[in-house]
Design a protein that fits this description.
By secondary structure, this protein is of the alpha/beta class. It has helices at residues 3-9, 11-24, 27-39, 47-95, 99-102, 107-149, 151-198, 200-205, 209-261, 267-305, 361-368, 391-397, 412-417, 424-433, 456-470, 486-497, 511-514, and strands at residues 323-332, 335-345, 350-354, 376-381, 384-385, 398-401, 474-478, 502-506, 520-525, 528-532. Helix content is 63%, strand content 11%. The strands form 2 sheets. Strands 6-7-8-3-9-10 form a 6-stranded mixed β-sheet, with helices on both faces. The longest helix has 53 residues, at 209-261.
Length: 533
Amino acid sequence: MDLKDLFKKHKKSLALYVLGVVIISGNNLFMNFSMANAFDAFTVDSLSEVMTVFKKSLGLALMPVLLQFISRRLRIGFMTDILKDVRTLAFTNILNMDTESFYSESKETYRSRLISDINLFEKDFFLSLLNIGFALLSTVFSVLLLTYISWPLAVLAVITAIILFVVTKLFEPKVRKKRQESLRSNEVFNRQVSNIIKGATTIAQYFSEKSFMKLFYKDTEKLESVKGDFYLYNKNQNNISQSIAMLSQTVAFILTTYLLSQGKIKLGTVVLILNSYSQIIWVMIACFDFINRFKSSVDIYNKLVDIDNHIDYGTKPFENGSIVVKDLSFAYGEVDVFSNLNLEIKPKSKVLIYGPSGTGKSTFMNCLSQNLKGYRGDIYYGDTSLRDINHKDFLNHVSYVRQNHFMFDSSIKENIILNQEVDENRFNLVIEQAALRNEFESFDHKLIQNGSNISGGQRQRITIARELYARGDILFLDEPTASLDDDNAKIIYDTILELDKTVICVTHRHLDYLKDRFDQVISFDMNGVIIDA
């Protein structure tokens, strides 16, 4: 969803936001009239007239305070609506990524986007939007006022504003580029710092503090150098703009002084002219700077919600038929993992994959489960190529028990049902199937820090229960009993072999016990792949 669509979605709150900006656009004029009116106190003769002037000036000065309060109330709804959608879109964008795209970036990168980038978007987008609207409208009002008083001064102000705009446009490409470089450098820095912190105990154990401090200092220096370039371009633009503004103000001051000396204007009008002219110039300088910031915030938004980098697996629905592999090959760079693999897995059959580490077992599973796309050859589910199957629909029919078992900071039960509406009968069944019944006093027991308060075997069985609860048509298991003792491992295997679904299991344990119980056995070794029916 681009920003235009987002604005259309919230057009009612946007209308109130615009009204809020319009309301405060005359604040500068109120202040100018207040000051100009105050100078009229020097031209009156009685105390009562002085008090009248004072009351009028005070009333004009207080108007901006009231209008600012009303404006804020009108604008807050649109700001809240946009931020809620941006956070939701950014989060949904990450959740909708296919596995291969997701793992192309680090978790720290996604964390940086959801926190740092959104905070930067919030700061720059709304501040820029408000100030651009305020500057343009207040400038129009001030130019109209100057035109009424002295059209040459109004023309001079407009010409100056145009020159300032040209300066801004000249700097815009570099400023936006440097802002993007700054964001990327910040992501890299966060990732590297997170990596060092995670390895802090290893660094201390091997007395490597000095070398890592040098690395940290180098990374910090690089980040600050990129940020410094961005600030330098901004500063250069501001310096040039300010020099032009001061020169223009000097000319305006000379013209105004001349009009006063000729008796064509009064002292209060002089104050009104100089304040209005000054505000036009300096407000426009700020406005043009905010235009660059606004465009940078749009760049951030586009990055947050961009899905162009996602791998598109097609739009066809999942078909629960035979899995047919034709001439399948996969390589990491120039290193072949396996070549010209051909096989067929019939629906609801049980397939065992085994072999030593590094022979391609997990890679093969990742190709079958849409986690890797860069394979040669083809994989069919029924009559449909895996490349053409919609990724979301595929995930609705497939479960995958991985070697790494992530646990949320929630109860055991919530970690199994994953915030779905609970089916108690189904929940109790998977508890039995995953051999969890006697492990905990209560399944409301809360897990913390990725399940650090339970054993590795318990975490593994909770993951298996989670996938069984999902009811996929196909179950992939990558070393499902790696952290279990022999007795519990046999319970798990007995469970998965009785499931009324296709099961594809990678393991290197209990082979004598398992080989005769699976319908198909695939052996991966350094010499190739052997398929036993």
